[in-house]
Design brief:
Elements: E1 28-31, H1 38-42, E2 46-54, E3 57-64, E4 67-72, H2 78-90, E5 95-104, E6 114-123, H3 141-155, E7 162-170, H4 178-186, E8 191-193, H5 196-206, E9 209-219, H6 231-251
Helix pairs in contact: 2-5, 3-6
The structure holds 1-O-phosphono-alpha-D-ribofuranose (R1P) and uracil.
Amino acid sequence: MTVVDKNSEGQGVRQYHIGIAPGEVSSVALLPGDPFRVPMIAEFLTDVKDIAHQREHRTMTGYYKGKHITATSTGMGCPSTAIAVEELARVGVTSFIRVGSSAGLQAGIEPGDLLVSEGTLRNDGTTAAYAHHGFPAVPDLKIAVELHRIALELSAGSSTKVFSGINASDDAFYAEGPEWISELNRLGILNVEMESSALYVVARLRGLRAGMICAASSNLVDGASLYSDKNAAMKEGWMRSIEVALETAVSLDL
Ligand SMILES: O=P(O)(O)O[C@H]1O[C@H](CO)[C@@H](O)[C@H]1O
Ligand SMILES: O=c1cc[nH]c(=O)[nH]1
């Protein structure tokens, strides 16, 4: 029997899932969940290149204020996010900023508001395969602080509010019942999404840097439904969160 070592196999070659080879991407990547949001990131860039689109992982590159930027979609949830981060790291990405959407869990968060992550409650299965359940899922401190500073700066004078706090990553969107939502609210968890747990844990274990800024899609304790007419506000929030992430990449020279 020859047991494969996945950590040594596939280094330095075009990656199996994301379809990217070393040299095709930059040192920093913005990570939306949805492949259709990658061209939204490209709207901010010059010299845009379509690099690959396999499965849920679409990748484009370009330049923002002279900085080479990559945008790759992770798909929904921790399994495909862990794969994207592992494979992007193998082709040269060292810093990751997730630009997502997320449901608010505290009163006052409205669709389109910006949510900066200070850490993640790991309610996912993927990271359990990587690390002890007590291992923290935390962003790079400098990226988190800079995302918050720039989010406040870019939102000043607008109706967009900026929040910073701990979020949760769930696996099962439709299994979030009232008891679980109330418990997260009681713990002071700001918002829930589905990818940052894997992003942070894989990044820490592989010596990479990561952060996250989301636009609120809804509010699970305040009656702001996903099915309301507030989706335009969420799109504005996405665009602003992308700009915040790009400015952070420039300011920290990621
Ligand atoms: O908008 P994205 O980045 O996909 O993020 C959120 O949206 C999806 C659920 O609707 C999940 O992926 C969740 O994390
Ligand atoms: O974005 C998300 C993720 C999990 N649950 C939600 O309601 N929204």
